[in-house]
Structures are given as C-alpha cells and as structure tokens.
C-alpha cells in the first residue's frame, strides 16, 4: 500500500488505543464510581487525564483523515491520463472521520473542564449531616 495509507492506518490504530485507554481512565475518574472515593481532587485529576487522552485521540483521528483527504485532493487535481470521472473524490467516510474527531476533542475538552478551581484544591469535601432536632407544630 501507499505510504499515506499506511500512515493513516497507523494513526487510526493509535487513536483507537488512546480512546480505549481514555474511556478506562475517565470511568475511574467519574464522581459516581467508588474507585479513589476518599479524595475528590485526585478523582478530578484522573478525569482530566482521561480528557487529555480523548483530545489526543481526536487529534490523531483528525491527522489521519486530513492526511488522506490531502492525498485525494492532490491526486484529483494532478494532471494525469486518468479521466475526471474515474478519479477519487471525498467520500462519506472522510466527513464521518472529521465529525468523530471533532466530537472526541469536544468530549475530551469537557472532561478537562472538570478540574477543581485552585482555591478548592486543598480542601476536603465533607457532607453536612441534617440537624437531629425535631420541630414541633402547634
């Protein structure tokens, strides 16, 4: 196969692996899971790490799809003996790839926004108990 196809294939495999590990790390960092429950700051940092993995996965997908689209564009406008109706054009897979890369990077950036503010990083979060006094109605 051509070099650009092999490169795109390698970038997509790397993107899949990064996305898989991003899912695992993000699930561990969610507030609804019991792993690492004693420190909410650590959980939010784990969620941010998952978001970074998703952003990297989206960038790899974007690079792979754009590399292939650039090669298709180059081949289309290059003067050759191949008739115009037999040349490659953008297909739906390229548009789906761009959409998937955009949504993956958007999801990763939303996970990165779950980092706690600086003034609350050192504080521990405690639940307040309800007052035990009963009210009397007259």
UniProtKB/TrEMBL annotation:
<feature type="transmembrane region" description="Helical">
    <location>
        <begin position="45"/>
        <end position="70"/>
    </location>
</feature>
<keyword id="KW-0812">Transmembrane</keyword>
<dbReference type="GO" id="GO:0005886">
    <property type="term" value="C:plasma membrane"/>
</dbReference>
<dbReference type="GO" id="GO:0005198">
    <property type="term" value="F:structural molecule activity"/>
</dbReference>
<protein>
    <submittedName>
        <fullName>CLD19 protein</fullName>
    </submittedName>
</protein>
<keyword id="KW-1003">Cell membrane</keyword>
<keyword id="KW-0472">Membrane</keyword>
<keyword id="KW-0965">Cell junction</keyword>
<dbReference type="Pfam" id="PF00822">
    <property type="entry name" value="PMP22_Claudin"/>
</dbReference>
<keyword id="KW-1133">Transmembrane helix</keyword>
<feature type="transmembrane region" description="Helical">
    <location>
        <begin position="12"/>
        <end position="33"/>
    </location>
</feature>
<dbReference type="GO" id="GO:0005923">
    <property type="term" value="C:bicellular tight junction"/>
</dbReference>
<dbReference type="InterPro" id="IPR006187">
    <property type="entry name" value="Claudin"/>
</dbReference>
<comment type="similarity">
    <text>Belongs to the claudin family.</text>
</comment>
<dbReference type="InterPro" id="IPR004031">
    <property type="entry name" value="PMP22/EMP/MP20/Claudin"/>
</dbReference>
<feature type="transmembrane region" description="Helical">
    <location>
        <begin position="90"/>
        <end position="113"/>
    </location>
</feature>
<keyword id="KW-0796">Tight junction</keyword>
């Amino acid at each position: 196969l051509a070099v650009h196809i092999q490169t795109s294939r390698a970038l997509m495999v790397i993107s899949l692996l990064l996305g898989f590990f991003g899912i695992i790390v993000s699930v561990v960092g969610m507030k609804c899971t019991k792993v690492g429950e004693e420190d909410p700051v650590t959980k939010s940092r784990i969620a941010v790490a998952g978001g970074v993995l998703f952003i990297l996965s989206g960038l790899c997908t974007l690079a792979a799809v754009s590399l292939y689209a650039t090669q298709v564009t180059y081949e289309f406008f290059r003067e050759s003996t191949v008739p115009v109706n037999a040349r490659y054009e953008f297909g739906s897979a390229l548009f789906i790839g761009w959409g998937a890369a955009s949504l993956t990077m958007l999801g990763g950036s939303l996970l990165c926004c779950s980092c706690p503010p600086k003034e609350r990083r050192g504080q521990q979060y405690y639940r307040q108990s309800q007052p035990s006094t009963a009210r009397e109605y007259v």
